[in-house]
């Protein structure tokens, strides 16, 4: 009787352990599938809304952003920033800008100086930079998390491209860390890839 109970106990323990392992394995896959599915729905909605094209700086710079985003141009004095377009999404979870800079320094040096000047009382939580190529223009993709003036962090996703003629083109996207979605880089890259520089 005792032997039979021990065998049944061992069998049930093994069965429960196997069930837990299978549940954890499939839950991870199901969770990933749901995340991908949601991302595809959001991107499809964005594509259906369409994109608004911009042709600026006498036709030397073209790009597009989602038509539903509120956008407005801003002028700067000093001459370095020759074009600036602010944007914000209807739900106000993403904001940023697209710029063109007249620069007399290499892009690497510009980024290095920008990073140093951005570090204030609180340093970056994370920071990464990698080389990219967009329509034959070399550049860098920079991602970082930095403390907000209030509590929490914001995530930044920025692309910097150079044309080899003293111009730097920038796309910057910012969102609160708690509002970040994994499909955002796909959307941002769609905008960055729309850059056409003559």
- For this structure, what is the CATH homologous superfamily of the largest domain? Mog1/PsbP, alpha/beta/alpha sandwich
Based on the structure given, which CATH architecture of the largest domain is correct? 3-Layer(aba) Sandwich
The Rg value, from CA coordinates, equals 24 Å
Order of helices and strands: HEEEEEHEEEEHE
Mind telling me the CATH class of the largest domain? Alpha Beta
Largest sheet: 7 strands, antiparallel
Number of strands: 10
Assign an overall shape. elongated
In CATH, the topology of the largest domain is named Protein Transport Mog1p, Chain A
Arrangement of strands in the largest sheet:
3-4-5-9-8-7-6
What's the N-to-C terminus distance? 87 Å
Unreliable stretches (pLDDT < 50, length at least 5) are none
Structural class: alpha+beta
User: Helical element count?
Assistant: 3
Helix content: 25-40%
The averaged pLDDT comes out at 84
- Provide the β-strand percentage band: 35-45%
């Amino acid at each position: 009787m005792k032997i039979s109970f021990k065998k049944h106990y061992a069998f049930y323990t093994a069965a429960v352990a196997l069930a837990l392992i299978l549940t954890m394995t499939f839950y991870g896959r199901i969770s990933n599938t749901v995340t991908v599915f949601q991302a595809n729905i959001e991107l499809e909605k964005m594509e259906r809304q369409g994109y608004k094209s911009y042709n600026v700086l006498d036709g030397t710079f073209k790009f597009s952003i989602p038509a539903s985003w509120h956008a407005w141009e801003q002028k700067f004095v000093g001459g370095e920033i020759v074009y600036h377009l602010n944007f914000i999404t209807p739900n106000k979870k993403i904001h940023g800008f697209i710029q063109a800079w007249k620069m007399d320094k290499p892009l690497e040096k510009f980024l290095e100086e920008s990073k140093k000047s951005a570090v204030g009382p609180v340093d970056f939580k994370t920071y990464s930079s990698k080389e990219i190529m967009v329509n034959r223009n070399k550049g860098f993709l920079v991602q970082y998390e930095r403390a907000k003036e209030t509590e929490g962090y914001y995530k930044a996703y920025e692309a910097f491209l150079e044309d080899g003629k003293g111009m730097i083109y920038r796309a910057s996207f910012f969102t609160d860390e708690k509002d970040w979605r994994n499909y955002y880089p796909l959307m941002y890259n769609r905008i960055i890839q729309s850059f056409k520089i003559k």
